[in-house]
Each structure stands twice: as structure tokens, then as C-alpha cells.
Specification:
By secondary structure, the protein is an alpha/beta fold. It has 14 helices and 8 strands.
Length: 256
Amino acid sequence: PSTAPAPSTPPAPGSRGRVALLEGCVQKGLFDHVNRATRHVLRVQGWEVVEVQGQGCCGALHAHSGALDRAREMVGRNVEAFGGAEIDHLVANAAGCGALLREMHELVPGDRAEALVGKVVDISELASDPGAPLGAPLPLKVAYDPPCHLHHAQRIIDPPLQLLERIPGVALVPIPDAEECCGGAGIYGITHEELGGAIGDRKVDRILSTGCDVVATGNPGCQMQIGAGLRARDRALPVLHPIELLSESYRRAGWR
């Protein structure tokens, strides 16, 4: 469990710079509470969150399915939208979207796309800052499952764990072979239902072996895959994005 001191004072609003959030399509449609939690944490930590009009789907699912022309259209729209914004970072809170954003210049070559790729960060990379304020305790055993698109594709391994470790009261419980896929894998769980389901069952077995109170994972596809597997076992175990836990810690500290 964390032995963090009492909550500190948040920095001045906007004092750390300006960021924009990719709202996504699955994320915005089914997990908009994750977007709200992301904005909340960023603002508490001193970032100005710039609302960017004209953004849309990142195109990752289209790229996975081989619809590259459509994916290029979507990437082009986002390069146009975010490329014109005065921001320090383009924040992704969905691992699949983040992985695609880091490859924008390969789908839509050009200086503007390359410049934007250099600003892409996962939310855990910002929110795990050791200088960020500490919130109120959350006495929970949390099992973190790393999304493949974060762990393997983007090589972002430590920041989500560091984010969770900085929440007072949280005890991280390791999932055996956590780096293995949950079976969702973009559209793989749909196009290969039987094998994806078998991989998902193995993941659920390993999660349940931890005795955790909450599962944390940073991708909507993983949240749905793991959540569905748990519900199939009639296990009411919450599957949350790590940023939701940090947001709740800040909320309990009175930072709304």
C-alpha cells in the first residue's frame, strides 16, 4: 500500500502548459466518463485542456481491418484539426488510439503530421509525474492489466504502474503473465471469436487469482473484453481505466 502523505495543493490552472485530448469514437461513445476523468486529472495537475473542434475517429480499427484509404482520411482530418492547435501535447487515453497516433506520419506523410506525432503522449505519461499533487486515499487492491497497444506497441510500461502507485491507499496486486493479450486485440476478438474468447478466459482466470477489488486497464477494447469475461462468470468486478481511479482520489480530496 502507498504511504503517501496528506493531499498536497494543486498547481495553478494552466501553469504546466496546454494539451488537447483525442476524444476517440469508442471512447467518446461508450466510455466518455474516462474522457471526463482525464480532463479532470489534467486540470487538477495544472494543464490547460484545449477543446479541439473537427477531430474524429483515429482510424485504428479501419487500419486493423485493412481499410487503409478510410484510415488515411480519418488521420488527415485529425492532423488538420490538431495540427492547427497551439498545444504542448496531444493526449491519448486509449492505447489503440495512441499507437495509431504515433504512426500518423506513415499514413499521411508530411511535416505537419511528423510534428504532431512528436507531441503524442499517453495520459499515464503525464499523470504519473512525481511532482503532481497527491489525492485522498482509495483503500483498494488493484490489478493492472497492460493493454498490448500500450505495453508492446508503444513500449509504455512503467507510467501506468507509477500512476497507480501514487494513489494513497492503493495496493497493486500483480496479474500472472500480465503482459499477455486479453484476446480483444483491436478487432481480433470479433474476427476470431473462438480463439479470442479462449485467450480472454485465460486472462480472466489470472485476474481472479489475484483477489483484487478492481481491474485497471488503459484501453476501451480491453475494458470490454475483460468486463465481458467477468460478467460471463457472474463476477461483479469493476474494470476501470487507471485515470478514473486517480480522478476519484482527487475528487475525494475536494478537487472537483
